[in-house]
Amino acid sequence: MHSFFSKYTSQSQSQSQPQSHPPSAPPLPDHQPPSSSQPQYGQPHHVYGSSSYGHNSFPQGTHPDVIRSFQMVDRDRSGYIDENELQQALSSGYQRFSLRTIRLLMFLFKNPSSPSGIGPSEFAALWSCLGQWRAIFERFDRDRSGKIDSMELRDALYSLGYAIPPSVLQVLISRYDNKNGWRVELDFDCFVECGMIVKGLTEKFKEKDRHYSGSATLTYDAFMSMIIPFLVS
Predict the structure, then answer these.
(1) Rounded CA separation 148/153 (Å)
(2) CA 226: distance to chain centroid?
(3) Which of 21, 27, 84, 155 would you label with 135, given CA atoms 20 to 30 Å apart?
């Protein structure tokens, strides 16, 4: 655990330097307060009018296409969407993500105090996040194959602020190895899942490493609560 995350403090400091690559994904929604020591993530690039939706509202500046994608799948007008509706909504703007990736996104972006599902503000944050991760994916898909290999994945994660040791990178890649003897390559769906696992676990670890020393002490229960959601999504 220590060797995996010990590099994030030095890497986050380097984020303050000018970068040539697109900004990394924004932090998770407001119900997980960011620390001032965390990297500063990008914000949506376009500003549009605000929109109300039931008793919830989309954030000021939400693109109309994002609002439309949400409203199309929220057929009961509850103001929340479940995992199947989220999968359908994202397919209109990106692609059809696997349910495994969708469940991970639900876990990371869903407000724990709203058990009904993803609301408008969380959906807008998720949409923005995926747009920026798409830009990173396309930057490192140098042959425009629609897939990236392990070295391109390593470089992409590094550009996002995550210096992954080779041993951990191999574990991540092995998740997508179908044992057919071909080189393992990840499409955008797998890239999002892989990247969100790294991002999510890093954020969870930072919550325990309050002094940003690269190490933390936690109980067995806390460890299992941290890891299991990423394994069963």
Answers:
(1) 6
(2) 16
(3) 84
